[in-house]
Design brief:
It is a single chain. It is built from 16 helices and 32 strands. It has an eight-stranded mixed sheet, with helices on both faces. It has a six-stranded mixed sheet with strand order 5-4-3-6-7-32, sandwiched between helices. The chain has a five-stranded mixed sheet with strand order 25-31-30-27-28, with no helix packed on it. A hairpin with a 2-residue loop joins strand 30 and strand 31. Helix 2 runs antiparallel to helix 15 and helix 10 crosses helix 11. The radius of gyration is 41 Å and the shape is elongated.
Length: 714
């Protein structure tokens, strides 16, 4: 017999307590009635045989109660015979294979496939198996039901064939989410499979266990007590791994390409054997450009920041290569070229250039040259407007009525997929709105504003106003509108109101005209109408209108593999014209309504091709994926994960040593299962109750009063 909690047996020492109590008598054994005590001297009773034990059967019963109580709390059980322990038991197993970018290191994938094939050969015919691969996401290769439906003689061969077709990708490692998904798959299969009960549940994890793996998903998950994790660590052939990373935020947006070389961080692994590396641009002859290459010294476990070497073409774009490393999967850094697009913004109105009381004054100061666009504000009055001006414009801002002879050209401009922002400077502007939207008549009048109006409801879900959706950017209550125009929105079929005044009048609405969009603002931003031009929202709002028209302004150009790349004007009128060219030269069309590009599975240079110009962005490996040092096993144990020692464990994985702690933990779990099945403590408590009842009855019989004894004698 064994005990699950043997320390509780120390409670047997409490048996001495009833023995001591039985040896101490606090009253005389027997009282005799006497007629009068007035002539007797008072004296303290004297006890005879003070250390003599009395009521020995009662003492024995009380000692037995204490012994049974300590015995029950120690949770006794009978271990199985050695022959029974060797009987194979059906198992429910999930094989979890790491296909992240760090598995691209030399020789690692070949060893990983070997570990997986070896583990598959140990699967018995009664086992239920599920195969999954993971990196930043999860993919089920063979489900439990699919495995069960296969011919038992073909299961291992089919799984091995599937493994031979796999290869690691370029995404980061989300180990926590992978473990949670595998555990949930086992729980779901256990619920659905009521016919067969498996005593053993396990996850076989084949990975390099690199330190950059994400474990955040395990924080909110309670690991099942009956689920064990078996580790199959894959060791790298070389210990040196250096990685490149572009330092963002160092370049000013107004600098042109070549003004300043980018800053690069080079990080070396803690156990690196090499500390000197070479940094150069791809495609350049290292012999002819040795003076342009950079030699970098990076101590093991440290990082340094250097300037990229000068290129022969004086460009700040391309691919940087790091040499001298044992593993080259993270030795390339792609940088998107900084392309500056000439953007023509046509302002239609009678305002003069230097008039601070007009709207043109603020438009010219809002649109400044950035790293990606060079805007030019072209001012034309309604009388001087030409069709050539309209055709050359990337965005039209109309602050006055458009003459009838130019209505057709502006309408064709909108129908082609462009955007026009029309500002209602007076109620007469509705004539232009009606002509452009193809509506017979629209009623409008000047609003009666006592002091000022404010914006009340704003549709932040619309792509135009999405940049203001965060609480710190979405406060428009400080903008006061002194004047605005009232317009009956019912006269505009299909109009979408994006913002309302607190008087429930539309402040900003959109009219779709064929492929394009007509944006109407019911108030101007000049000082006599509102404080909009003086607020912090004005410049971002104009740039948002520009991007809604398909022009990429101040867009991020550096992303990581697996990121969702936001596409400007994804829900706007020109979204159907966008296509993405990937580094492998494949062309991916974007459907109407798509707000982001998700097929970011390769590092390299991507090109967004549209009718109004191209935008280029670069994808690189996440910095954490380059942290290839082996994670401490305590990182997993800290989340309550039950570990078993892997059969493929070797001494070179000292960082992953589970040691005697895991062995003891596994043995304790098996003991707990046996004790839970046998439940001898229940019978012990039943015996405890029986002995307690006997003790109570005996104690009551022995402690009867003398009067009751005399009565019984009579």
């Amino acid at each position: 017999m064994s005990f699950l909690y043997p320390l509780f047996l120390a409670g047997i020492a409490a048996v001495s307590l009833p023995i001591i109590l039985h040896m101490i008598r606090r009253q005389t054994r027997k009282r005799v009635t006497f007629s009068s005590l007035m002539f007797l001297r008072t004296a303290v009773p004297r006890f005879k045989n003070r250390s003599h034990l009395e009521n020995l059967p009662l003492l024995i019963l009380r000692c037995i109660i204490l012994c049974l109580l300590a015995f029950a709390f120690s949770r006794p059980f009978f271990p199985r015979e050695a022959g029974d322990a060797q009987v194979p038991v059906a198992r429910r197993t999930v094989f979890l294979i790491d296909t992240s970018a760090s598995m691209r290191r030399t020789g690692m994938w070949t060893r990983a496939i070997g570990h997986a094939q070896s583990a598959l050969r140990d699967v018995s015919g009664a086992d239920r198996v599920c195969m999954m691969k993971f990196d930043q996401g999860m993919e089920t290769l063979i489900g439990f039901e699919q495995w069960d439906a296969m011919d038992s003689a073909r299961r291992t061969a089919a799984a091995t064939e599937l493994l031979s077709k796999m290869s690691p990708g370029w995404a980061s490692t989300n180990l926590g989410q992978a473990l949670v998904s595998a555990a949930e798959a086992i729980e779901d299969d256990e619920i659905n499979d009521e016919q067969q009960k498996f005593r053993t549940h396990r996850i076989v994890l084949i990975s390099d266990f690199q330190k950059g793996s994400s474990l955040e998903a395990l924080q909110a998950y309670e690991w099942p007590e009956t689920l064990e994790l078996e580790l199959k660590p894959i060791a790298a052939a070389g210990s040196t791994n250096a990685a490149l990373q572009l330092i963002a935020g160092r370049d000013h947006p107004t600098r042109t390409a070549g003004d300043e070389l980018p800053s690069i961080r080079i990080t070396n692994s803690p156990d690196a054997a090499v500390e000197r590396f070479g940094l150069s641009w791809a495609g350049e002859d290292p012999v002819g450009t040795s003076d342009r290459a950079t030699e970098v010294y990076v101590p093991a476990g440290h990082s340094v920041v250097v300037r990229a070497p000068q290129r022969t073409d004086n460009s700040a774009s391309g691919k940087l290569i790091l040499t001298g490393d044992d593993h080259d999967f993270d030795n390339a850094l792609y940088m998107a070229p900084r392309l500056t697009h000439k953007v023509n913004i046509l302002f239609v109105g009678s305002d003069s250039t230097g008039d601070s009381e007009g709207m043109l004054y603020y438009v010219q100061r809002a649109f400044r040259a950035t790293g990606s666009i060079d805007p030019a504000v072209i001012s034309r009055s309604a009388e001087n407007l030409t069709d050539a001006d309209v055709a050359a414009a990337h965005l039209i801002i109309a602050a006055d009525t458009i003459s009838p002879e130019h209505i057709d050209s502006v309408r064709k401009y909108i129908e082609s997929g462009r955007t026009v922002l029309l500002v209602m400077k007076s109620p007469d502007t509705v004539k232009t709105i009606a002509a452009l939207a193809g509506i017979d008549s629209i009623e409008s009048q000047e609003a009666d504003v006592s002091t000022y109006a404010m914006l009340n409801r704003i549709e932040f879900k619309h792509p135009l106003l999405a940049p203001f959706s965060e609480p710190r950017f979405g406060d428009f209550t400080r903008i006061h509108f002194w004047k605005h125009r009232q317009i009956n929105i019912d006269d505009l079929p299909g109009a979408e109101v994006l913002a309302w005044f607190d008087s429930n009048d539309p402040a900003l609405f959109e009219l779709h005209v064929a492929k394009g969009s007509l944006l109407v603002l019911a108030s101007g931003w000049h000082p006599s109408d509102s404080q909009l031009a003086l607020s912090s929202k004005f410049v971002p709002l104009l740039y948002s209108v520009l991007e809604y028209g398909g022009i990429f302004a101040n867009r991020q150009s550096q992303y990581f593999v697996g990121d969702y790349v936001p596409i400007s004007q994804s829900a706007g009128p020109v979204s159907a014209n966008l296509e993405i060219r990937k580094p492998d030269d494949s062309l991916i069309p974007l459907n109407a309504g798509e707000e982001s590009f998700t097929q970011t599975d390769l590092p390299g240079i991507y090109t967004i091709e549209s009718s109004v110009g191209n935008h280029i962005f670069a994808l690189n490996l996440p910095a954490k994926e380059c942290q290839t040092a082996v994670m401490p096993i305590e990182d997993l144990e800290g989340f309550g994960v039950s570990l078993t020692q892997s059969s493929g464990y070797s001494a070179q994985h000292a960082e992953l040593s589970i040691g005697s702690r895991s062995t003891r933990a596994s043995r304790l779990r098996s003991f707990a299962e046996l004790e839970s099945e046998q439940k001898f403590w229940r019978w012990i408590f039943i015996g405890l109750l029986v002995v307690s009842f006997i003790e109570i009855a005996l104690a009551g019989w022995l402690t009867r009063s003398p009067d009751n004894l005399l009565g019984e004698q009579k």
